[in-house]
């Protein structure tokens, strides 16, 4: 992994983003940038079956955010409409996602899929562990 770890336990940090099939190109760019920094401690939440299959076929570490009995998380392409019902549902899912991973005891860095990682962000957080 990139950077040195000390007081901020970047060895125990998971970097997570999420997307549906409408944002596959964003995911590919996000993963490319994260990998350029040398990170392997990342996951992408698949909000629908279509992107889940695409991520697996591309070798991108992923997990399903949709119900087994459904093909999607209930947040469709309309999540792009700021302030709409799907947008708000996606916000609630972010909170659930954070709670799920924090229960594991890991540190968590949630990064929106449209935010590109251009540097060693964990080294930055290590400088300011508080």
TrEMBL record:
InterPro entries attached to this UniProt entry: Glycosyltransferase_77, Nucl-diP-sugar_transferase
MF-aspect GO terms: arabinosyltransferase activity
Domain called Nucleotide-diphospho-sugar transferase: residue spans: 39-127
Swiss-Prot/TrEMBL keywords: Transferase
A GO biological process held by the record: cell wall pectin biosynthetic process
Keyword set includes Signal: no
GO cellular component: Golgi apparatus
Protein name per UniProt: Glycosyltransferase
């Amino acid at each position: 992994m990139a950077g040195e770890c000390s007081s901020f336990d970047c060895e125990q940090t998971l970097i997570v983003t999420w997307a549906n099939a409408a944002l596959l190109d964003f995911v590919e760019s996000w993963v490319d940038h994260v990998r350029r920094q040398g990170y392997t401690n990342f996951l992408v939440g698949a909000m629908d079956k279509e992107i889940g299959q695409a991520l697996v076929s591309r070798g991108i570490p992923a997990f399903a955010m949709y119900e087994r009995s459904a093909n999607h998380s209930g947040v469709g392409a309309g999540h792009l409409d700021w302030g709409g019902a799907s947008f708000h549902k996606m916000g609630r899912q972010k909170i659930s996602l954070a709670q799920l991973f924090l229960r594991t005891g890991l540190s968590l860095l949630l990064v929106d899929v449209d935010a590109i990682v251009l540097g060693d962000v964990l080294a930055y957080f290590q400088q300011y562990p508080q």
